[in-house]
Amino acid sequence: MKDLKIKTRLLAFAGGLAAFIIILNIIHIGVMSTLNDSAADVAGKWTPTVSSAQGVRAQASAFRALEFQYAADTTNSDAAKQQMDTVQKAVESVLASCVAAAPDNASKQLAANVQSAWATYLKTHQAATGSASEMLSALNGDAQNQYTALDQACGKLADYAQKQASVTSDSAAAAFRAAQTVSIIVTVLAVMAVFILCAFIYRGVTGPVEKIVDSAMKAASGDFSGSIDYTSKGEMGPLAEHLNKIIGQLKTYGNYIQEITKVLNQMADGELDVQLTYDYAGVFAQIKQALNHLSESLNQTMGQINAAADQVSTNAAQVSSGAQDLSSGATEQAASVEELAATINGISDHVRTNADSARDVNEQVTEVSVKLRQSNEQMQGLIAAMHDISDSSSQINRIIKTIEDIAFQTNILALNAAIEAAHAGNAGKGFAVVAEEVRNLASKSAEASQSTADLIKSSLQAVKHGSQLADETAQSLTSVVEGGHQITASVQQIAEASSEQATSIEQVTQGVDQISNVIQTNTATSEEAAAASQELASEAHLMKDLVAKFKLRSEAQDDSEESTPVQQEADVPEPEEVSHPVEQPSLPEAQTYPENIDEDSFEDISSVSADVHDKY
Amino acid sequence: MNNEGFEAVNVAVDGNNDEMKGKYLTFWTDDQLFGVPIKDVVQIVGMQKITQIPEYPDYAKGIINLRGTIVPLIDVRLRLGKPEKEYNDRTCIIVTSVNNSYFGFIVDEVEEVTDISDDMISPPPKLSGDTVNKYLTGIARMNDKLVLTIDTAKILGEEEFDALLQSAE
Question: CA angle, A524 as apex, A595 and A600 as ends, to 5°?
């Protein structure tokens, strides 16, 4: 029994169950055929006989009712006759079917009785069809009895058929009860057999399964001590055997995991100088390799992190100092820009004053220009007056010429008088004195006219000189007026230029404000950078402290060689990507950090200034 | 002036030689002051229209009609060998009477009628064969001026005198 396979057991169970079902069905089919026969007897034989007997009775009753109608009502005798013929045919047809359907001899006899009673009654009827009175007498006479006989014959037939139907039905009920009993017994037996077979199969399967489950649960909970004590040629035997192998392998793996756990704990505690001793099988060989690789990598990485933390600390200090320098420089810049803004404001005021002054100068120059034009007109009047003076002087000159002529003539006259007086001798002495006086007068007159002429001449020269000067002055005034126009234009240009300067200086002021904002932002940024770099330095120290907690392989083997953070061991295969960062440190040198920062910041500042320059 | 005046002059010339002695009429020619005795002087007239006479010497400029009397004219400048000068309103004609003949001397300017005593007159410098000496009678010093006194008759040569006189007539 133990070596039977689960398949075999299940097949036996299914076969037994099928046999029970087949037996039960055979019994059922037999009982049901009996019941079917009984039902067919009732439905096909006896029920039609009962119905046809009762049909005959009903039709005969209807016939008799028509006869009475015929007898009572003579007005419609033909119609009543026709109806009576129709009903007569219906009675005869039902009677024929009743006789034909009679199932046994007794019923056939009873049907024949009915037929004969109908024939008797019909005979009486046909004899009385001549008139209504005859019919009425016949109805009350012989026909009365004959009808009663017919009715009784019909009732006998119906009772007999009814009785036969109930007999058949009772036999069918007895057969059904017998079959019910058999069915219950067989069903109970079948259920019992099913339970027995199930228990048998269950016991064959669950025994080893429970053992296997116990061992598997132990193994699942980490206890690999137990093994399954079960051997069988069925399916459970190999299952238990392989499960035992699995548990044994798991035990080995447990040892692996224990060692790996130990090593990982050591690494977690900072002991990075660890090696795995077991000869790991299967995927655990990869784990061993990976763990050794991890140890190597962590050694190298921690060494690099240590060095990087050093460099980060140094560079962060430099960045901090640089950022502080930048911050102080930005503060100085802000101060300078504020001074510049103040200076520009002063320049703006000056330029505005300049513009106002230029406007005043413009107005004054315009007034001066008007006055100069007036002066020029007055100068032209002066020149005209000079010309008048010159003309008058020329006329005076002519008059003086005339006076001179007169004086000359007078002189000659006086001389002639003197000559006459001399010729007159003593008599002319007094005349000579008068002539002398006249000559003196003429001489004085000539002198006076001469001096007047000289004066007029000098006056004319003066007037001429004055005219020249007046002309020159007029020309000068004209050029002065033109110069005044030019001055007006220039002052206008100065005023416009001053206005443009004022506008430009406003834009410069805005630009300086923007520069001031940028510098304030720069100051804040550089202060933030200084704070961030100081924080970075402290973080680097913290990182260094954290890294110092790890005991590296190189430190364990050779403390003096700090430059090579990891020394490779011979039995550990060296991955190239591990040694690569050691040979080529990815971190830049310490001096390059501040330069980069300075250049970046300068680029920022220059870009900002370039932006500002572009805006203005 | 009129004809009666001429006659009176003629009378005076005839009868008052003593009174007229020592009186000179001075005139300017070529910036030199000359003096002619007043007894020779008839009249002073202004410049007038001159009628030129052909074949006269250069210094004889022509003749004028002085109230009906033909007066030949001598340009003193040219007669004294000085450069000719254009006449102006100062130029005068001194009409003289020499040997009862009228001559007109064209001078640059008439100065005055003045008294020159004999003691003021020095004899002219002697230069042999000098024609100037024929009419230059002396040199008088008057204050700061020197006056060359000339003989009216001798300023013309004998031939010239006659020729002129003839042509005038």
Answer: 25
**Are the Cβ atoms of B112 and A426 closer than 8 angstroms?**
no
Contact predicate A4/A234, CB 8 Å: yes
CA A132 to each of CA A35, A64, A77: distance values in angstroms, whole numbers, following the listed order: 56, 14, 8
Q: For the residues of A253-322, what is the DSSP string, one character each?
A: HHHHHHHHHHHHHHHHTTB------S---THHHHHHHHHHHHHHHHHHHHHHHHHHHHHHHHHHHHHHHH
Neighbours of A610 (CB within 10 A): 11
Q: Does domain B23-168 have CATH number 3.40.50.300?
A: no
Q: Please give the single-letter amino acid code of residue A66.
A: L
- B37/chain A closest Cα distance in angstroms: 10
> A430: which residues sit within 8 A by CB, 6+ positions away?
none
What does the alpha-carbon distance between residue B39 and residue B18 come to, in Å, rounded to a whole number?
10
A269-321 pLDDT tens trace: 877 777 777 778 777 788 888 888 888 888 888 888 888 888 888 888 888 78
Long-range contacts of A191-194 (CB under 8 A, 24+ apart): A193/A16, A193/A17, A193/A20, A194/A13, A194/A16, A194/A17
ipTM for the complex shown: 0.81
Length of chain A: 616
pLDDT above 70 coverage of chain A, percent: 89
Which residues of chain A approach chain B closer than 8 Å at the C-beta?
405, 408-409, 411-412, 415-416, 418-420, 422-426, 428, 435, 439
As separate numbers, helices (DSSP H) first and strands (DSSP E) second, chain B gives 5, 11
